[in-house]
């Protein structure tokens, strides 16, 4: 991670969980940060903390990625400040647990905007300068939910499936321009995710610390991998499921995730 010392990284969803940990670890290696999320107070606290501890430069930009204009605003902000973004970390995202028909349509559409459309838009904006410089890194936070359908978080799993396929495809497209793209696939991780998604506590399997997940993602990105699953147990579970018929896997997931009737 020494390679990013003195460079600028943009981290979305930096106000909490995995994004906060990614930002901290990059700062610890001397990377300057543009931090974005909706909660500006949290971003300011993180910026103060890493500036004091690691003597890096930071900028914060509060934005709601459910607004289609937000990626363009973030891009203009970095351009106006003259900050060349060497690392784009597409981390912001959220889920919504329950029967699809009972979840408010706007919440699902916002999820698609944040988890999918804003990832495509930010990547489309920040990639060309990287290609021009023949140097750049893009991390896209997907999930182990990306590898199979997951009833009762169907929309969320589908957004993460998109993120995974997008990252892997793009990684091959841009490798020849010196740009690396990697999908980080965490399993259950300590963060505010479950609270925001409204997932009941009994669905919480062994959670990984967000610091560990962040380290796995940054190391895989630096190593030029196009995807990484955090944790051996998560890796075994994903790879094991490939051997079983998809319909069976989906039915088992439905039984696990079904809300009490
Ligand atoms: N935790 C898990 O078990 C797990 C597992 C697999 C994948 N993931 C993925 O990991 C990523 C990070 O999630 P986390 O676990 O760290 O959860 P988290 O603690 O809830 O953090 C989510 C981050 O996304 C930001 N965000 C959410 N909606 C946003 C919006 N409309 N506009 C801008 N920013 C928004 C939040 O910031 P504000 O609320 O301040 O806007 C927050 O910083 C997500 O993509 C998630 O899908 C998590």
What is the name of the CATH topology? Rossmann fold
Q: Oligomeric state of the chains?
A: single chain
Estimate percent helicity: 40-55%
How many runs of DSSP E, i.e. beta strands? 7
Ends apart, CA distance between termini? 48 Å
What does this structure look like?
The N and C termini lie far apart (48 Å). The longest helix is centred in the middle third of the chain and has 29 residues, at 105-133. The protein is built from 9 helices and 7 strands. α5 (154-174) links the parallel β5 and β6 (179-185). It has helices spanning 17-28, 40-54, 70-80, 105-133, 154-174, 193-197, 210-223, 232-242, 246-257; strands at residues 8-12, 32-37, 58-62, 85-90, 136-141, 179-185, 227-229. It has a 7-stranded parallel β-sheet with strand order 3-2-1-4-5-6-7, with helices on both faces. It is globular, with a radius of gyration of 18 Å. It is an alpha/beta fold and 261 residues long. The protein has one domain: 3-Layer(aba) Sandwich (Rossmann fold), CATH 3.40.50.
Name some characteristics of this structure.
261 residues, alpha/beta, Rossmann fold, seven-stranded parallel sheet, 9 helices, 50% helix
Describe, in short, the structure shown:
With 261 residues, the chain is an alpha/beta fold.
List the helices and strands and how they pair.
Elements: E1 8-12, H1 17-28, E2 32-37, H2 40-54, E3 58-62, H3 70-80, E4 85-90, H4 105-133, E5 136-141, H5 154-174, E6 179-185, H6 193-197, H7 210-223, E7 227-229, H8 232-242, H9 246-257
């Amino acid at each position: 991670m020494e390679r990013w010392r003195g460079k600028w990284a943009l981290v979305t969803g930096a106000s909490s969980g995995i994004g906060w940990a990614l930002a901290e670890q990059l700062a610890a290696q001397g990377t300057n940060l543009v931090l974005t999320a909706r909660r500006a107070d949290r971003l300011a606290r993180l910026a103060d903390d890493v500036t004091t501890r690691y003597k890096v430069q930071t900028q914060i930009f509060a934005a709601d990625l459910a607004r289609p204009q937000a990626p363009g605003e973030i891009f203009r902000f970095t351009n106006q400040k003259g900050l060349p973004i060497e690392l784009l970390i597409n981390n912001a995202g959220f889920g919504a647990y329950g029967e699809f028909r009972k979840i408010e349509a706007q919440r699902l559409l916002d999820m698609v905007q944040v988890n999918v459309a804003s990832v495509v838009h930010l990547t489309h904006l920040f990639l060309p300068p990287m290609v021009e410089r023949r140097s750049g890194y893009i991390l896209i936070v997907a999930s182990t939910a990306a590898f199979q359908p997951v009833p009762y978080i169907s929309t969320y799993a589908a957004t993460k499936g998109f993120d995974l396929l997008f990252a892997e495809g793009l990684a091959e497209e841009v490798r020849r321009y010196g740009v690396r793209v990697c999908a980080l696939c965490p399993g259950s991780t300590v963060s505010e995710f479950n609270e925001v998604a409204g997932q009941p506590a009994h669905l919480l399997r062994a959670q990984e610390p967000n610091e560990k997940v962040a380290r796995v993602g940054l190391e895989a990105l630096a190593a030029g991998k196009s995807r990484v699953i955090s944790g051996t147990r998560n890796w075994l579970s994903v790879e094991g499921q490939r051997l079983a018929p998809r319909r069976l896997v989906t039915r088992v997931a439905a039984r696990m995730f079904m809300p009490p009737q």
